[in-house]
Structure formats: C-alpha cells, structure tokens
Specification:
Strand order of the largest sheet: 1-2
Largest sheet: 2 strands, antiparallel
Number of strands: 2
Distance between the termini: 16 Å
Structural class: mainly alpha
Radius of gyration: 17 Å
Number of helices: 5
Low-confidence stretches: none
Mean pLDDT: 90
Strand content: 5-15%
C-alpha cells in the first residue's frame, strides 16, 4: 500500500492511488503508455471493470488520454498537476489525522523528522 492509499478505500481508488504513485515516481512520464486494462487487472487480481473505473478517473481529470485502438497515455503536464492535487489531498485529508495522531502519542515532531527511514 502506498502513502496515497487508505485501507478502507474502494478497490478502484486503491488502484488509482497505485497508478498515481507510479506516475509520481516517474515510472510513467508524459507520453508514456499505461498498461492495458486487462494487464493491470491481471497484475492486481482485480476486475477489469474496476481498473477501467480507475483509469476513467484519470481521464476525467485530464491526466491521460485514450487513443482508440492503441491505449491510454500520460498527458504533458499531468505529473505536475497530479503532484499538486495529491499534495492538496494529503494536506487536507491525511495530514490533520497524522498531526492528531502524533499529538495523541506524545511524539516529538523534530525527532520524527530526524529519524532515518528503514
């Protein structure tokens, strides 16, 4: 599960988060073709209709374009716009809960920032 996913999310949102993370990591750049619906469904053990719904959300947000008979491709500027959208989603959706949890546990923020990730 990536930082963009939430365990209670519907499957298509988990798939969307997985694809978004791959785009943000640079696995798919502007102009790159995304895996086919069938290939991604097989890879994740998901229903192709669920994958199609995740892909449709990227198309609705203008991060990808469909070229009939060819596939789905990442649009120019999509990475930057996706990063901005995911930052906003993190800051408004996840960060308040993380901050609350840090306070609840009495953790020191500076210690957390200084801590090396394993």
């Amino acid at each position: 599960m990536t930082a963009l996913e939430h365990e209670d999310s519907p499957v298509y949102l988990k798939l969307r988060a997985s694809i978004a993370a791959a785009i943000l990591r640079g696995e798919y750049k502007a102009g790159d073709q995304l895996p086919s619906v069938r290939a991604l469904a097989a890879e994740h053990g998901a229903n192709p209709l669920t994958v199609a719904k995740a892909y449709q959300s990227f198309q609705d947000d203008d991060y990808v374009e469909v070229r009939r008979g060819v596939g789905m491709f990442v649009l120019p500027g999509a990475v930057e716009r996706l990063r901005l959208a995911e930052r906003e989603r993190f800051l408004t959706g996840y960060w308040p809960r993380v901050r609350e949890h840090i306070a609840l546990l009495g953790l020191d923020v500076q210690e957390l920032l200084d801590r090396e990730l394993a």
